[in-house]
Amino acid sequence: MRGVVLDELRSPVGTGDAGFDQRVRGILERGAAEELGALHEEAVARFGAGHPDALMIRVHLALQQESQDDPAGAAIALSGTAGQLSDSVGPLHPHMLALQAEIARLWGESDLTDLAADSYGRLAEMVEQARGADDPGALAAYERFAWWTGKTGRTAQAVQAYTELLSRQRRALGPNHGDVLETRTELIRWHAEAGDVTGAARACADQVAARVRVHGPEHPDTLAARVQLVRWRAEAGDEAGAARACAELLEARELVQPPHHREVLNTRRLLAHHRTEAGDLLAAERDYEALLPDLERYLSADHRLTLRARVGRAHLLFLLGETDTARVETEGAIEDLERVLGADHETTVAARFLIAATRVTVGDLDGAVAEAEDLLPELRRRHGDDHHTTLFARAHVLEARGDSEAIALYRRLCELWTGVLGPTHPNVLLVRLRLATEGDLEGEEGRRHLAELFEEFRWALGPTHGLTVMFRALLITLRSDEATALAELGELYRTCVSTLGTEALGTRAALEAYTEWRGFVLGDEERRSA
């Protein structure tokens, strides 16, 4: 924290009495605190309470109280002295300003934030009246007022005070002064403390421009400001802006750091991540394809950055609808994630959610429910009950328990996931199908809705996708009598075997539908034998 630069009352100026002045210097040099009280009484009696050396001794008495862990008592004592002095010399006398600065500092040392803020506010007004708004002491006092105002919890007022201080400093000191840059940093902080992440991002962009102007694009302070800009733009929901800021950060890093430097590699990972979040999926895919081999070559396959990049790529594949590949890659990394990062790390939790979400699309509902049930407390703690990840886990757990509330959660999940993933993502299509099967499947409108939804499955996923085959099997059982449905399901399975092979997801979906229906028609014994 910066101090307030004002006239000091901590050094003697001399009284004209050589013997007395020598005694004062000796007591201060020896640190003979027990003699200060008597010395102060003598100074007041001989030279008056307003004499600079009498005030100086009084300040040292207060500092003695502060050293005895009583800064509040010292502030109270100096406040009484200031009140007496004000009557004789006026409130704007340099000695009054110096006393007020000490009092404000002592309130701060006492952690009495409201009194500190009020005292610095009065001091700033007094110095401005005495010396002008651009005086260094006025600027320093106003900076302390802004800081302590924030410490009282009045964050919006702190933002306003720092904004005013920035305007004053730019006028008095110029836009490139170190104090101006420091105030810009504080402005970012208090915007964030006030919950104004958009304001923090805007202030951070101004800080980056100032740092580039003063220090150049590759200076460590400029790079640190760019890192903050990426963060706050992402926090503000401007993922496209975060991606642009990250690309600029990468360009600046590459000016001063080699390609294998850890920060360069991490910035490339962040760029791929923010491009993914911004919806620039093809660019993100290119980023990950180039990044992952470099991470494994320069770091290791199980380095924390490599693992985080692998999960990031799996997340991208999930968004692209390549859910089976995303599942395989994430399951292959989960053991290393838990070993290297820990089970509770945000990347590990995200990977576990991906596993649960992708297991649904390959028909492993039991595995998905088990994973969701285990993951649900952590998702609730991190994201709350209405985040799409939490809704997914809650809906599947409730449905497994036979709770009718699951349908309401599926509806909300469908709304959120349609915005996040798009209406034809495999997981969105599954939720839409689940909701469609809650309607009247015997009525004409219900059948028409299912037929239209099936065409979306076939168009988005292709006719041989496991989910499309599963849906087709469902339609067969709805439209045909039991024996005919069994024959058609058998034919569907044989067609999948001949065109896709026995291990394809579509073939497995057709086989599951056939064996389930066979058990329903012929009994459990026949199903087991099949």
Brief overview:
It comes from Nocardiopsis metallicus. The protein is mainly α and 530 residues long.
Write a structural description.
This protein is mostly helical and 530 residues long. Among the domains are: 1-110; 454-529. Helix content is 79%, strand content 0%. It contains 26 helices and no strands. It has helices at 18-30, 36-47, 52-67, 71-89, 94-109, 113-131, 136-151, 155-173, 178-193, 197-215, 220-235, 239-256, 262-277, 281-298, 304-319, 323-340, 346-361, 365-383, 388-400, 405-421, 426-436, 444-461, 466-479, 482-500, 505-522, 524-529. Helix 16 runs antiparallel to helix 17, helix 17 (346-361) runs antiparallel to helix 18 (365-383) and helix 24 runs antiparallel to helix 25. The longest helix is centred in the first third of the chain and has 19 residues, at 71-89. The chain starts with 17 loop residues before the first helix and ends with a helix. The mean pLDDT is 87.
Q: Which terms would index this structure?
A:
single chain, 530 residues, mainly alpha, elongated, NLR-like, Tetratricopeptide (TPR) repeat protein, TPR-like_helical_dom_sf
- What is the β-strand count? 0
Major beta sheet summary = none
* Total of DSSP H or I helical runs spanning 4+ residues: 26
What would the principal axes of the Cα set say about the shape?
elongated
Calculate the terminal CA-CA distance, rounded to whole Å. Answer: 78 Å
Protein name: Tetratricopeptide (TPR) repeat protein
Organism: Nocardiopsis metallicus
